[in-house]
Amino acid sequence: MSDEIEAKYEVFRDLLETRTPEEAVKSLEVLGLQDQVIQRIIERHEQRVIEIREMDEPRVVYEGNRYTWYTGPRSGDRCWPALVDRLVAAGWKQDPAIDALDAASTKVVSLLSHPKERTFSTRGLVVGYVQSGKTTNFTAVMAKAADRGYKLFIVLAGIHNGLRRQTQARLVQQLVEPNPTRWFQLTDLDRDFVPTANAASFFGKSNRTHVLCVVKKNATVLRKFADWLRSASEYLGDCPALVIDDEADQATVATKTINPLIQEILGVLPKSAYVGYTASPFANLLIDPSADGDFYPRDFIVNLPKPLGHFGTEVVFGRYALDGESPEDVDDGYDMIRTVPESDVELVRPMRRVDIESFQPTLTPTLKTAIEYFWLSTAARRVRGTGVKHSTMLIHTSVNTVVHNRFRKPLEDLRMQLNAGLGSADVLQRLRSLWASESAKVSAAEFGERPVAFDQLLRELPGVVDDCKIIMDNSSSEDRLDYESGPVVAIAVGGNTLSRGLTLEGLSVSYFVRAVSAYDTLLQMGRWFGYRDGYADLPRIWMTDELQDWFRHLATVETEMRRDIDLYMIEDKDPLTFAVRLRTHPALRVTTAAKMKDAVPAMSAYGGQRVQTRYFRRNKDWLNVNQDASKGLVTRAKETGGHEPDAKNGRHVFRNVPSEYVLEFLRAYQFHEKSQECDSDLLIRYIERRKREADSLSQWNVAIVGNPVDSELGNFEFAPEVEVGRIVRARLGSDDPGLENPAEDDFADIKTLMSRRDAAIDLVGETGRFNEEKIKQERLEQLPDTGLIVLYPIDKTSTPKPVAPGKKQRKALDAETDVIGVGLVFPQPGVDSPIEWKYISADLSKIDIEEEDFEALNAEEPA
Questions:
Q1: Residue 79: left (phi > 0), alpha (psi -120 to 50), or beta?
Q2: For residue 807, what is the DSSP state?
Q3: How far apart are alpha carbons 236 and 146 in whole angstroms?
Q4: ∠ CA(633), CA(635), CA(639), 5° rounding?
Q5: CA dist., res. 335 & res. 448, Å (int)
Q6: 310-311 and 120-127 as β-strands: parallel, antiparallel, unpaired?
Q7: 795/727 Cα distance (integer angstroms)
Q8: Residue 573 confidence (pLDDT) above 80
Q9: Cβ(225)–Cβ(187) under 8 Å?
Q10: What is the mean pLDDT of residues 333-360?
């Protein structure tokens, strides 16, 4: 582009400061520019718009005719450059951290309405990760929106004072202090909103100051704020407002008081952009989008990428392979989880409501170990002298404040006992063994950290124990985690005030047995997610095996949900034509019942998918049923002909097996009740529908995959002259025999059964080189109407192989007899036959557990 056109383009950008794009073009015409020059300026603007829309990250879906006007920061901006300076001073690097923040925030601002539009009401959602920098992202969005002319900034900062205060402090430090004459604060660190006189004076055209208000989602506060805004209603017509709803799934959705009050505030503002931020958007994605004035993200959804160095659900707990993924690419996570036996749970939290007042907690051996490890790891961090200076341990066993307060004396006693015992050889030997054990399980070198010997940390240990504070951080206590007055070492016992948004600085150890019943509550309680600079090898979490299983399921749901959001872009959908599906769980709700009232069962199908068993019982009677079902299928398949034996490589294939034999097998084989996709009724219904509606899946190929015959583990015979060597599939779980859970003795989770190669066993060609897409493509060409079922004889002992340092070590399967695993591969049809799978989603048909404690929402705030 010529220098002349570039200069005129900058004039156009100047005009965009005070005009909408349409008005700016008319202004160019008034200035007398030739039509072809104006056209080139428009093309230059649209080129930049396309660049922003097509950025790889973050992924965005938006309402189809939404116009992008914002094209990034400008040289005369004040708020964004000041924020960058603050971040650099705090240690941020331009590449990649600030560049990524710049790109993500630019994309969000580009989806807001232009501040000079006559009226607007935008609804958007930004999905991040727990403890991943969402506050920094919306601070950047606010800075850029302020630079472009937004005037009123309302931040709804959760439901507790701690998060509101923390958010206010961040915004003051990063927005207000660098430009104090440009901002007026309606709230401060210690005071939520209190009405001031003459509200209109803040919003008149002559007042160019940005107005900042950080409020809790509290009925009294919001009602006062709505009334105060209403008193200035005649001046709000030229006051573009950005409303940031932090933790947007909490209290905003389906609440009787908070939801209408937020709607009331937005209703007073003729120009309002509402943007929700959350790491657990399950409730937001299930809102009825046809409801008047609600918060379904009809205009856009932004899927923020996981930042470099972020510890998320998947990193800690692992997850299951999704359809189309290669199982070997999905590991079990790092060996950072320690098991709390079920027998300990009743000792650290009351099991019944009537027991709360009389409950006295016991510091169980696992809790004592967790606390001692916390002190050791904090001492090791002092030896290293790198990373954040704070060090925190979280004990989260109950939502009840009475229970929290009862922990204080036992914890103080333990601290005094250890201090007094540091001269004892027995105590030192116990601590030395604990440190040696934990250091061996997760290698410091794996994370680029310096190993610390016990003798080195021992010199710091007495100071750590002396400095350690015991904090009861809950809604009724005066204790609070204060990270603003110097380095902190603290054991925090708490509930809801520590489970939403609030950052626990330097969190390295968590003891977590809280009973919850919903995905969003569980995910938000994972305060251990985030950044661990300088101590990435040291975090540990103590929890029950059941909770570990729930978090692993949740990691899978989270990944699948984000993949669904990304599908919007690929399939050219928008939030009003495609609903994100959320996989359900037998023991967990997706969110609270009130928030799911508008959800509907989501339609899905098995077409093109690979389904496999991963959960099993280990008792002989249950397993024998599955052995008999498998032997029966192979015997009947053998009678039909088409047998291709390859016993030398541990494989057999039977072609053109009638579907009746497969359906008979599915009726007999017992899938574990925890299996989501492996549901006999759904599988049978789907196969029968495909047969009936598309004359497909009438024929199947049946395969057996094992080791070569006469290999080390011995053979398993499915039928005469049909045998293969047994294979190993170890199970997930604790490797400490002292922590076995009797209730779970019959359960095994092997996580992954099939390999990619197995899914191509009946295809012709160099199948070993096929990737997932190639397998689907070849199946469509070679066997478009034929299903594949694969049987695996799993050795009953299945001793696990050693794993890489730092990764979780599996356990021997130790079943009472051999286990038969099953995998099914379905061809991709041209038009699939949907079934009601175990997902839910928002209802778009109208469009062309221990609950969270919301008592504080309606509590009276001081005047």
A1: alpha
A2: B
A3: 16
A4: 115
A5: 17
A6: unpaired
A7: 6
A8: no
A9: no
A10: 87
Which tokens in the block code for residue 372? 């001692």
Instruction: Report the alpha-carbon distance of residue 161 to residue 199 in Å, rounded.
Output: 25
DSSP 815-863: -SS-EEEEEEE-PPPSS---EEEEEEEE--TT--------HHHHSPPP-
Rounded mean pLDDT of 456-473?
A: 92
- Is the per-residue pLDDT at 131 higher than 80? no
Residue 426 pLDDT > 80? yes
Q: Which is nearest to 280 in space by CA: 131, 425, 383? A: 131
Share of the chain above pLDDT 90, in %: 36
Task: Show the CA angle centred on residue 21, arms to residues 17 and 27, nearest 5°.
Answer: 80
Which amino acid makes up residue 733? G
Whether pTM > 0.85 for this model: the answer is no
Spatial neighbors of 821 by CB under 8 A, at least 6 apart, are 612, 613, 616, 729, 750, 753, 791, 792, 794
Report d(CA 559, CA 314) in Å as an integer: 9
Question: How far, rounded to the nearest angstrom, does the alpha carbon of residue 266 sit from its chain's CA centroid?
Answer: 29
pLDDT in tens, 29-52: 887 788 888 888 888 888 887 778
Identify whether 240 is preceded by a cis peptide bond (ω within 30 of 0). Answer: no
Amino acid in the structure at residue 817 = T
Contacts 24+ apart (CB under 8 A), 165-173: 165/189, 165/190, 166/501, 166/502, 166/503, 167/135, 167/214, 167/246, 167/501, 168/214, 169/484, 170/135, 170/139, 171/139, 171/142, 171/212, 171/214, 173/86
- DSSP code for 233: G
Cα(858)–Cα(863) distance, rounded to whole angstroms? 14
- What are the b/e assignments for 623-648, b being 16+ CB within 10 Å? beebbebbbbbbebbbeeeebeeebe
